[in-house]
Amino acid sequence: MAAVAEFDSVGLRYGTGAEVLRDLDFRLRAGAFYFLTGASGAGKTSLLKLLYLAQRPTRGRIRLFGEELTEAPREAMPPFRRRIGVVFQDFRLIRHLSALDNVALPLRVAGAREEDIEGPVREMLAWVGLADRASARPPTLSGGEQQRVAIARAVINRPELLVADEPTGNVDAEMANRLMGLFTALNRLGTTVVVATHDMSLIEATAGAQLIRLDNGTIDDPAGALRTPSRPARGDG
Amino acid sequence: MLGWLFVSPPERRLLGASSRRAPTPWVIAIMTFTIMLIAATGLALANTASVLSSAIEARFALEVPGGGAKLDQLSAMVRSSPGVTTIEAVSEQDMRRTLERWLGSAAASRDLPVPALINFDVSPGTDIKPIETRARTIEPASRIVSHRDSVAPLLRSLTLLQVVAFGLVLLLSAAAAAAVVLAARGALDTHRFTIEVMHGIGATDLQVTHLFQRKIAIDAFIGSIAGGAAAAIVLLLLAGGAAFAGELTGGATLGAWDFLILALLPLALTALATWVARMAVLRALRDAL
User: Fold this and answer.
1) Domain residue ranges in chain B
2) What are phi and psi of B143, to 5 degrees?
3) Cβ(B216)–Cβ(B16) under 8 Å?
4) Per the structure, how many domains does chain A have?
5) Domain residues for A131?
6) Is A108 within 8 Å of B10 when comparing Cβ atoms?
7) By three-state DSSP, how is residue A57 classified?
8) Which residues of chain B neighbour A96 with C-beta distances below 8 Å?
9) Is residue A111 domain-resident?
10) Residue A74: inside a domain
């Protein structure tokens, strides 16, 4: 199956500090569902940043959607970023925009016509249970509501790759299941999903999902299940 | 080309509430006001110099010392000389009467040597030398004085003042541009989070730049129009004084072209501010991933 993302000996360090990610060799299959787990500080958020092109690796190579992007010029990034939906741990909603305008932002950035925006956005807000909060601004929303607006914004464009950092951290169990249901539905439609979480119950409840364990900046994958087929597993000689 | 200026209301909301309280429009208004007054002064000086210069360009005076006994003969000679268009003889008595205003009865004293004068204009290209040569055969002590040479220091001062005015206009425009760069950087800092989010969801640098470019263009337009209007009022109030000055300088005032240039200054300043903001924002965004 085609790969959405391929990491080849990728390392990442911030400034002159130690590497927070080391020797990452893995591929994410198109249409698969992944959970990314690991202790705090293991490098989950850094790995997600590489995936949603907010960070460049300090070594190694990254291919996304079949394109080598490691040293691609910054002007080349926007079209790829539009194919990725991101749910940030801290939501990253624009405070002075309504929930509706926040969710509509990816459509507007992609150049959608105004008349084609409001309908789908209201539909998406209804899906995450916020139909009556469309005109509310983030500071007036609860943490859970902000989380749902952030998720609606991430998926409004039907991204090919959805990256979510602790997306259910601020919602109750019922809403968490509902949001995971949305991710699963998107996954069935072909979106590759990567969810970083500590919540084992979510992982257990999602059939067919694959686990990526990060341990101290490296991927714990002794069986080589995540590696590129043509590359031997580390330590295989 | 100006599509970035006309965006939907939701896109207008991306940078938050209106920035009318921000200092940019005020700074631009003050700069425009000052630039317009300086430019008007420079243009008036240029017109004054032009009027003065054209009035004296072809004017000469034949000085006839010693009472001007041969004034009539000299006048006839000058009048008959080729190229002479107008002639006005001023006798020694007339000169003394004129001096009387300042010197009183001393002007009539024979101890004060006062020449008679023959003022005359010539057509362009006329050679003055033959006239002076003939004048000396009639009155050896006579000499021709060019009005242009007499007024040259004044004209040089006027030219220098025009250069100073032009320099000040450039300097203030540069200061306005620097203020816009600071405003753009301030706006970028204020909206850093919004920019990060927009980049994160695939906005291009140009899309982000257009937001700031539009905001600063509107601020600059409001400021420059307000400053321009205030300068226009001041110039109108000074119009009476300018007319008086015009009397002194032979009617030099601001012409239609001058007013057109002054009217275009606020628009030029808006265009400059918009371009500077665009460049400043694009350069700052280049530092992001």
Assistant:
1) 8-53+152-285, 66-141
2) -150, 155
3) no
4) 1
5) 94-158
6) yes
7) coil
8) 13, 16-17
9) yes
10) no
